[in-house]
Amino acid sequence: MKKGLLNYVTDFFWTTDQKTSRTQILLAGGSTALWSEKNYKSYADEAYLKNAIAYTCILKIAQAVSTVPWWLYEIDNDGKKIRIDSHDLLTLVRRSNPSDSFNFLIMKAIAYLLLCGNSYLERATSSITTRVQELYVLRPDYMTLNKSDVTGALNGYTYTLNGNSVNFPVEYDGSCDILHLKNFHPTDEWYGSAPTASAGYEIDTDNERTKWNKGLLENQARPGMIFTVNGQLTDIQFERLEKQLKVEYAGGKNAGKNLILEGEKGTDAKPYGWSAIDLEYIEGGRELARKIAMVYGYPPMMLGIPGDNTYSNYMEARLAFWEDTVSYYLSYLKSELNNWLLRDQENLILDYDLSQVPALASRRKELWDTAEKSTFLTVNEKRDMVGLESIGDSGDVIMVQASMIPLGEEPDMSEPPVEDNPVSDEEDGTIKE
What we know:
Blueprint lengths: L4 H9 L8 H7 L3 E3 L5 H10 L2 H15 L3 E6 L5 E4 L3 H7 L7 H15 L1 E8 L6 E7 L4 E5 L6 E8 L2 E6 L8 E5 L12 H4 L1 H19 L5 E6 L5 H15 L17 E6 L9 H15 L14 H31 L6 E5 L8 H13 L5 H7 L39 H4 L5
Antiparallel strand pairs: 1-6, 2-3, 2-12, 4-5, 4-9, 6-7, 7-8, 10-11
Helix pairs in contact: 4-6, 4-10, 8-10
């Protein structure tokens, strides 16, 4: 197995079989770099940490995807999936690393993907074998992609933290210890497009609207006062008046206080403000919330906006949220994880299970009713339709009602013949007198 520089450093200290994450070493302590132009810190600060709508959309989608259970299946010769209960890969599904469960790992991966369009997973293998023993999610802003100066193809990743770097080469067959999840980008074949960037104008506008609203509330919904002085103030008088206004009269705690002005030349203060129509920021905020939610794929009806969140609208939106947004990210994760972790084991597949998701209960009921009422499917075909295993050869029959006959045939109304074979006294066991 090929090792990076930090693997050799680790082997110096550890003589036994150890599972080693090279990026976790950085936490403790000849290519051309292709740098991303995205400002990850700005996305994190302005969208996730300061904007309630973007925070809700990112967190709710990531949480929904992370709550779905995953199982390992074996594909038999007939193409049917057989669930496996014992395998090395299942330990990663139960606990990805000493710090993170698999659910939390998936939540972070999807959150990064929604926030900046890119998400990176690292697989840590044993220092003796190539078996994957731990999985980690890496911060996107610490990762850069390296391309070859000759061919222009991707030849590795570099993770830089605290001034130290670790390289993850891409092998000749395309395998790598890094899995790069990304959204489609129409002008960049290396990095994914961030939904936060597409919703950037709306997020910035909503943040500024909140700041403006707070400033108005701190000053009784008045943007300020017009001070008129007959004559010209000296520098000392100007600084004194300005300091008095900032310290004694500014802020919400001083709302309603009257100003006391003095001066021989005379000073006048007149308030100016907005009308009730000018202060109509509520509906504007709701429209911004709808646009931001639409970009992330989170139904606006689930944000609690008055008028949108009726019971029927909420139920339909919740179902659409799982069928459209959550199912897409689950399918994307399924294909990427299988291609990354099981590329050499074609008979195994890692798959998610939606059978216990409460939001999809109505869809499951419709599927079960359809299978139950079907008259042209075998028992095994019905069981496979609803996700159940086959019951063997006895299930390869079509069950119909006993009273049903082929179309065009007359039913047999004759009485069944009565057998003339009475039981003798000897046969029925009675004792003759």
